[in-house]
Structure formats: C-alpha cells, structure tokens
C-alpha cells in the first residue's frame, strides 16, 4: 500500500506522536456493484476542525460528529488539530455510512494511537454509533466482491454483516462489534485473532436450501387448495417450467391472485451462483440488515402496489438504487390489477422484459441492474369486473368508453411480451369445479424439476447467450420442431396476425410443453396448446 509510517512526516504535540498522513481503504455501492474508495486523513497544526472533501453527501458529512463521539466514548483521543479527510476518487459522489469505521481508523493511525501496519491490504466497512458500537451497512456483499477483484485479502466489518460476507471465498474476515476492540491492534500490533471469523463449511449451502424450502412453503400456500381451474393451473405449471410471463384475466374471486401467489412454491430453488446474485441485490438495497439468514435461496416474489412510480419499479435516484424489477431478479414480479397501474409505469417494463437488464443513464455514469424475471399479472375485464362474465345478479355497469379506457392501459407491445394469456372464468358449479385431476404444489414442483432436468440434458451441447435464451434463427434451429408442427405454427402466424416476437415466444412455449412431457421433438399438439394460451394476443383498446 502507499502508506508507510517510517517514511511519513510526523510531529509530537502534547506528548502524542502524529504521523500526519494515513491512507485507509473503504468502499461504497454504485448500482449493484461495489466501488473502492480511498480514505485519506491528514492532520496539521491549526484551529481544531475536521473537513470531509471528495463530494460527500449529507450522511457522509455527518460522519464527522459520529466519529468524534465514538472515539471519545471508546477511550481514544480525538486530535485537537486541523484534520482533513479526502474520499478518493474525488470526482465520484459518495453516499452512505460505510466510511465511518475507515475515517475513525484513519484518524487513529494518523495520530499514532494505533499501528498502521495491520491495515495494509485491508478493507474497512461499518457505521459508528455515538457510543462506539459498529453498526451494519448495506451492500457488504458487493463491496467485498469488488475488493477481492482488486486484490484485497482482509476485511474488517460489523458483526451483523458476517452472515452475508462469509460467502465470498478467499477473504480473511474480522468482525467488530465496538470501536474499542481496535485497542487489540494497539496492544498486539497485527494480531487480530480475537476478532477473526471462521468461514462456512462446504455443506452449509445445501442445509440452507432445505431450511429455506421448509420455511417458505407454509407462507406460500398449496395449489391443492385451489378448487377447479385446471387449465389455469396447467398454465402456471408451464410458466414455472420455462420461466414464461403469464397474464390471467377474469372476474373477481376466481382465484387469479391465489394461483399467482403460489407460483414461487413450484419454482426450483436458486443455485449457489443465482443465490449470490440475488443476495447481493438485497444487500445493496439494505434488505438484509435484519435477516438471520445468509444467502437467499428461494426465488424472490415481489408484488408492488399500483401506486408505485416508474423509478420505484425499475430503480432511480441521483445514484440509482434497485427497483422492484431488480429485486425480483431470478424470481417473480406480480402486478395485480394490471390496468390500475399508470400506463407510463407499465411501459418502462418493455426493455427489461426483452433484454433481462435495466439500464439507467445519468450525466456522469450509466448503471445496469439485472432483471431476469417472470412477469405474472392479473386483471379484471372491466372496472366493475363483470364484463363478459355476467351471472346471477352480477351485471356489468361499465360503458364501452370506460372499458376501452381501462383496457388501453395495457399496450399491444407490452402484451406481445407475455407468453401465456388466458381467461380464468367463474366455475359453473362447485360440483363441476371439483371434477378432474387436481395437482398439489408438491406434484407440480416435481413436474417442473423434471422439465428442468430434461432441458439441461437436451441443451448440454448448445451454447446459450448471456441471458440464457435463444432467439430468431438460432431458436428455430434448436427446438427440433416436426414439419407438420412448423406448418401449424406458420398457419397461426398468418391467421392471427401476430408479430415475429410473439411467433418466437409461442415456439419457446411449445418447447417448454414438450420438455414437460420429456419429448425430444416439438409436435403439433405442443404447438396447438401454445396457440390456445395466446387468447388475449391483440391490443386491448
């Protein structure tokens, strides 16, 4: 590192040796990635004051008072001289409270109260309370991951962040609960064994998988509770097997919301790499600070209210933060009562649904957030809910203009990106609804896992693109469609007037149906079923 106590200028004031300059490494979060930040501390003679420079936001500027009180209440001496703290690179705006611990350590090393040697090649993260307690910070997983890429080998962090940090391998972790524990460094020089963290064993991920499944299953509910609606449950099964977007339409009380909320129960648990991706996102968003778990192993399920803004949905801010689309990465984004969302909010979903990534541009940087999601949505056919589904004394009271305005919230291009579109009608009778086979969640999950395994074997020799899917000519070459099935799909393309995007999505849907049946080739019955799931495949206006 750049700092070297023997070469640094120093002076003695009131019996205290001041090294004058110290350099401590910390980090911040930009988008969902970590960014290394150098905390430079300079002490010089002059009026007692401390200045923080390097484009700090208010939370960073206020760290001065937190650090001052924390040092005093931890038994250290706060230098009564002129202190300048520079956060480099200086042209990058800094926000958050992750620099508190690094600033405190910089002041202590520059003033000679503790040795500078142990901080070589070490990343410091943590917020300080006034009494010296070290509080957790958001984004630790992303910051440590970046530090590892830059060659750091040690991290000093809050105890509360350890559960997520241990998943980054080949990093020495040292957990701090109170600032006075830095006194160990003063007494033992570079010996931090008292605060060293032991890493996880190799079996802990599979154990956490099982625990996550058992913990979540009761919360999600069982498809066995759904009376009837066999076609809709079949559609949910296909959607889960191929990670397809799905839209359910129907009158109130037919089970649309119930079935979608049970969707995570039939999705496979995340792989370790996927779990790391999702956990990093939730860490950046500050949603792991109160968690008792390490990795998030279950696919996330997000269901924002229809009053959400565009920024809340896809992310935003001067330094953009993840939105609901990114928080649903590798999981399900559920939009209940789709036409109740403002049209301009729904339209921002177009690019993420197509590219599986959210791109947000600012004057000084472009931020990218992962957004590989399943979109699940539901809506009533009209504002009152009974258009086309009148029964008993339930009659639609909406005018044609009102219905048209209501449905026009869902644009044709957005609908074009939804693979399964079907109506969920009210059952004729309970006796009629109870007939036929009814699968429960465990049975549906086994079918989904079987389809996943068959697909992995089938695509073992195929190189997929970075978002894990094929399009265009490459897709049509890989699905192994029979000539008569291809002819049926072409006829549907001409008869329905669908777009080429919808054509490709129907082909992918048919391939998923074939995977569920462990069929190497896509047959006419697979194409026919895929076609019937495009019942709303026209602009609703």
Strand order of the largest sheet: 13-16-19-12-20
Beta-strand content: 15-25%
Overall, the morphology is: elongated
Sheet with the most strands, sense and barrel status: 5 strands, parallel
Query: Mind telling me the C-alpha Rg?
Result: 28 Å
As a percent range, the share of helical residues equals 25-40%
**Roughly how many Å apart are the termini?**
64 Å
Mean pLDDT: 85
The low-pLDDT segments are 1-8, 13-18, 206-210
Structural class determined from secondary elements: alpha/beta
Give the number of DSSP strands.
Answer: 20
Number of helices: 22
Description:
Strand 17 and strand 18 (366-370) form a beta hairpin. The strands form seven sheets. A five-stranded parallel sheet has the order 13-16-19-12-20. The protein has a four-stranded mixed sheet with strand order 3-4-6-5. The radius of gyration is 28 Å and the shape is elongated. The chain is built from 22 helices and 20 strands.
Structure in a nutshell:
This protein has 541 residues and is an alpha/beta fold. The protein has a five-stranded parallel beta sheet with strand order 13-16-19-12-20.
Write the layout of secondary structure elements.
Layout: E1 11-13, E2 16-18, E3 21-30, E4 33-44, E5 49-53, H1 58-61, H2 63-73, E6 82-88, H3 100-110, E7 122-124, E8 127-128, E9 134-135, H4 140-149, E10 154-158, H5 162-165, E11 172-176, H6 183-188, H7 204-220, H8 230-242, E12 246-249, H9 256-261, H10 272-284, E13 301-302, H11 310-314, E14 315-316, E15 321-322, H12 324-327, E16 332-335, H13 343-347, H14 350-355, E17 357-361, E18 366-370, E19 374-379, H15 400-407, H16 412-416, E20 420-423, H17 430-433, H18 441-458, H19 472-478, H20 483-496, H21 500-516, H22 524-532
Parallel strand pairs: 5-6, 7-10, 10-11, 12-19, 12-20, 13-16, 16-19
Antiparallel strand pairs: 1-2, 3-4, 4-6, 8-9, 14-15, 17-18
Helix pairs in contact: 2-3, 8-18, 8-21, 20-22, 21-22
